[in-house]
From TrEMBL:
<dbReference type="Pfam" id="PF00627">
    <property type="entry name" value="UBA"/>
</dbReference>
<dbReference type="Pfam" id="PF26285">
    <property type="entry name" value="SASH1_Homeodomain"/>
</dbReference>
<dbReference type="InterPro" id="IPR015940">
    <property type="entry name" value="UBA"/>
</dbReference>
<dbReference type="GO" id="GO:2000058">
    <property type="term" value="P:regulation of ubiquitin-dependent protein catabolic process"/>
</dbReference>
<dbReference type="InterPro" id="IPR009060">
    <property type="entry name" value="UBA-like_sf"/>
</dbReference>
<feature type="coiled-coil region">
    <location>
        <begin position="377"/>
        <end position="404"/>
    </location>
</feature>
<feature type="compositionally biased region" description="Acidic residues">
    <location>
        <begin position="522"/>
        <end position="532"/>
    </location>
</feature>
<feature type="compositionally biased region" description="Low complexity">
    <location>
        <begin position="494"/>
        <end position="521"/>
    </location>
</feature>
<dbReference type="Pfam" id="PF18037">
    <property type="entry name" value="Ubiquitin_5"/>
</dbReference>
<feature type="domain" description="UBA">
    <location>
        <begin position="398"/>
        <end position="443"/>
    </location>
</feature>
<feature type="domain" description="UBA">
    <location>
        <begin position="347"/>
        <end position="387"/>
    </location>
</feature>
<protein>
    <submittedName>
        <fullName>Negative regulator of ubiquitin like proteins 1</fullName>
    </submittedName>
</protein>
<feature type="region of interest" description="Disordered">
    <location>
        <begin position="494"/>
        <end position="534"/>
    </location>
</feature>
<feature type="domain" description="UBA">
    <location>
        <begin position="448"/>
        <end position="488"/>
    </location>
</feature>
<dbReference type="InterPro" id="IPR058666">
    <property type="entry name" value="SASH1/NUB1_homeodomain"/>
</dbReference>
<dbReference type="InterPro" id="IPR039749">
    <property type="entry name" value="NUB1"/>
</dbReference>
<keyword id="KW-0175">Coiled coil</keyword>
Length: 561
């Protein structure tokens, strides 16, 4: 970190003074360094850095060589379309030329770009690799190779299986509609518990994103940051399928960006610096849109902003860290001063915590309550009690709502409709039983009309499968379907069949299989497994002890930030 800080400062000073080390007098036409001129520069910069002269000369020559090589690489790329990659070698490697890998045992390497291992099965440009991309090289010695290969394969297998099981579990939950009284299902609601009306596909993506995020946070608590990062990046992909209007109205997306960069920090993934900066900027923009300029929107909804301040503390701390690594000490100090101010407000009195816990409140409730009330003990006790009451009232409303829903579904079932169809119709009708009945009736009549039309074509001598396909192609118009079959002598070509439009009807189907996947043992096991990672407390993501943050603050201060 100190080396990167020194290099960043030198580059900044060189840029300010418009000094180009790749040009004369610092580099001649044969790319030979001008040692005396480098020495003169080092004599100016060494006192400012408080470092030995020889070390600064070496750093300047490294920057010069880097610039010369970058220029050569750019020329080669323009002329031949062959890219140059900058590799960050393991610390014990003394050579820079990757073609001399045998000198330091790189017989097995992995290349890491922005926190992701490059795959040999994909083109580099498809994986985001560009000319002069910086990648981390992981070194594996011969003695460790076999063991590490086995461990990594097992680890990757477990990670992939975990992601797949999490995705499948939440996929099942996203498809459930509450038609089964004993089966859990998910409903997207706002901070007051009111259901949000979201398009079906967007709702599925949001549930998957939030589920993968919860799994990732669960792994972060266990300090399994590499595995957590895999789940968080998958969650990020799912969030990208949601509309911008939705993402700007909730803070989940911003919190995810913070969690990803926090994992980068824990894994010391310095190669992900640029990606980390972009994610922190997205998080800050999202908080601004979601909470308001002075957090007035948050204040209006929740009545206080104390609990969410831990998110800003982590945001400013990560911004300070990245600024320091880039060599921008002034910005790093500015952000760190904001962090320390927030930390002093959010670091709680242990005596007050104990007093609240003696009253029967949990440690989490005590911590969140004190932060919400700026450390006032009496107000915190009242606040926690009110929150408990509100939570219980919300649960009661949910129980009543579900009970009412089951009654309506049973009523529609008694009228001859399947339970599954009744639940779907009720969902489409936003709980209105009359509208649900109308949807079911229309669906039933449409199905009957389709059956009648099919029977008519069968009476004319056409086969059932081509009759049904012809009706699909002609949107149910029996005359057009008859003409189509006559024109093709009762046989539809594969080209015509491929044009058959997929069903886009949102009305319930009367041809559901008798055994639903949602009731299978395997599905229920998956659902129960993923539900274990969902916190029962809606503000779990705000319940930070700040121990890790405190350690990082102290580390930054020892670096004289």
């Amino acid at each position: 970190m100190a080396e990167q800080n020194m290099e960043a400062k030198l580059k900044s000073w060189l840029k300010q003074e418009k000094i180009q080390l790749w040009n004369p007098p610092y580099t001649d036409e044969d790319n030979v360094p001008g040692q005396q001129h480098l020495q003169d520069l080092a004599e100016r910069y060494a006192p400012l850095l408080c470092l030995p002269l020889a070390e600064v000369v070496g750093a300047l020559d490294a920057i010069r060589l880097q610039a010369v090589n970058r220029g050569k690489g750019n020329k080669t790329f323009r002329e031949t379309n062959v890219a140059t990659l900058e590799l960050l070698l393991p610390r014990d490697s003394k050579k820079v030329e990757t073609q001399r890998h045998k000198e330091y045992g790189l017989k097995y390497i992995k290349l890491i770009l922005n926190g992701k291992t490059l795959s040999v099965d994909q083109r580099l440009d498809e994986q985001g690799v560009k000319n002069h991309s910086k990648m981390m090289v992981l070194k594996v010695s011969d003695t460790e190779l076999k063991q590490q290969l086995s461990e990594e394969e097992e680890k990757t297998k477990n990670q992939n299986e975990s992601i797949q099981r999490t995705q499948k579990g939440f996929q099942i939950l996203s498809e459930r509609d509450g038609s089964e009284d004993t089966s859990p299902f998910l409903e997207i609601a706002d901070q007051r518990g009111n259901p949000l009306k979201i398009p079906h596909e967007e709702k599925k993506a949001l549930i998957l994103a939030m589920g993968l995020h919860e799994k990732g946070r669960s792994l972060m608590k266990k300090k399994q940051f590499d595995n957590a990062l895999c789940h968080l990046l998958q969650a990020d992909q799912q969030f990208s399928k949601c509309g911008s209007a939705l993402l700007s109205s909730v803070d989940n997306f911003a919190v995810l960006q913070l969690d990803i960069v926090w994992c980068y920090r824990a894994l010391e993934a310095l190669s992900c610096l640029e990606d980390g900066k972009s994610r922190l900027q997205r998080a800050e923009d999202c908080f601004l849109q979601c909470y308001g300029e002075q957090q007035q929107r948050l204040l209006m909804i929740k009545g206080n902003t104390g609990r969410e301040e831990v998110l800003f503390l982590r945001l400013y701390l990560l911004q300070s860290l990245l600024s320091y690594i880039e060599g921008n000490d002034a910005q790093a100090r500015h952000q760190l001063s904001k962090v320390e101010s927030l930390y002093s407000r959010l670091c709680l009195d242990s005596e007050k915590m104990s007093q609240l816990m003696v009253l029967g409140f949990t440690e989490r409730e005590a911590r969140l309550g004190l932060r919400a009330c700026q450390g006032d003990l009496e107000e915190a006790a009242i606040h926690i009690s009110n929150q408990r009451q509100e939570r219980e009232e919300l649960k009661q409303r949910e129980r009543q709502k579900r009970s009412r829903r089951m009654e309506v579904i049973s009523t529609l079932t008694e009228l001859g409709f399947s339970r599954r169809d009744a639940a779907r119709a009720l969902q489409l009708a936003d709980g209105d039983v009359d509208k649900a009945y109308a949807i079911l009736l229309d669906s039933s009549q449409a199905a009957q009309a389709t059956n009648n039309n099919t029977e008519g074509l069968l009476y004319l001598g056409f086969e059932r499968d081509v009759s049904e396909a012809a009706l699909r192609l002609t949107a149910g118009d029996v005359q057009s379907a008859t003409q189509l079959l006559l024109d093709n002598q009762g046989v539809l070509s594969p080209e015509l069949l491929s044009e058959s439009p997929p069903s886009t009807s949102s009305s319930p189907s009367s041809e559901e299989p008798s055994t639903s996947s949602s009731t299978s043992t395997e599905d229920n096991e998956l659902v129960n497994e993923v539900l274990e990672d969902i916190s029962r407390h809606e503000e779990d993501y705000l319940d930070l002890t700040l121990e890790e943050e405190s350690q990082l603050i102290q580390t930054m201060k020892t670096k004289n930030v």
